[in-house]
Amino acid sequence: MVWTLTLINDEAHIRRDYAQGILSRDTLAPHPLEQFELWLRQAIADNEADATAMSLATANAEGHPSVRIVLLKGHSEAGFVWYTSYASHKGQDLDGNPNAALMFYWRESERQVRITGTVRKLSREQSESYFSTRPKESQLSALASQQSQEVADRSVLEARVQVLSAQYSDTDVPMPDNWGGYVLSPTRYEFWQGRVGRLHDRFSFDKEGEGWAVKRLQP
């Protein structure tokens, strides 16, 4: 069989230049978490859409990759936190292979941050503390959904939510047994600032003992 490459809207010629900022060794924060926080705060202040959205890349025990968007729900020296069903596709990947990667992309400021490291589950107490702050509709959805499993029709999910909504109309919604938080502990960061002519600025921070080795990377 011979395959023909079809271009939609001539995407090979769709491009834009990057001229919003620069990143140099002089302006780079000494610690990667500090640099991340500087960029995140600016993205939020600039009203970047979904500033806390991050791509989460996992791979199963056989090395087959998968990626999706999740929302950052906390960060510290300990790592970067998100919440999900432990029975989901990503949860199953992480059970067999705890290595993962995150990427933040802030379009308006023309910046990316890539973070790689190892992942562990948060304690049930930590997860319950966050679950209790979620809107009730989100709590009910988490309880109703068997994430990543096949369902015949959306009406099945809506019916489950309706039953649960009546069941917990006057009481707190319990956190599902297979739901909770993960934290990725970074071993590497990379900061990318778009520049004119694709001569982008890139710096990596690699964990070395108690510190970080910083390198400028070619674009």
Cα-based radius of gyration, to the nearest Å:
21 Å
Percent in strands = 25-35%
Percent helix: 10-25%
Tell me, rounded to a whole number, the average pLDDT. 95
Structural class: alpha+beta
Overall spatial form: globular
End-to-end CA span: 37 Å
Largest sheet: 9 strands, antiparallel
Q: What's the tally of helices? A: 5
Uncertain residue ranges: none
Write down the secondary-structure element order: HEEEEHEEHHHEEE
Strand tally is: 9
Concise structural overview:
With 219 residues, the protein is α+β, with helices and mostly antiparallel strands. It is built from five helices and nine strands.
Which features characterize this protein?
219 residues; alpha+beta
Note down, in words, how this protein is organized:
- There is one protein chain.
- Helices cover 24% and strands 33% of the residues.
- It has 219 residues and is an alpha+beta fold.
- Helix 4 crosses helix 5.
- It is globular, with a radius of gyration of 21 Å.
- The relative contact order is 0.18.
- The mean pLDDT is 95.
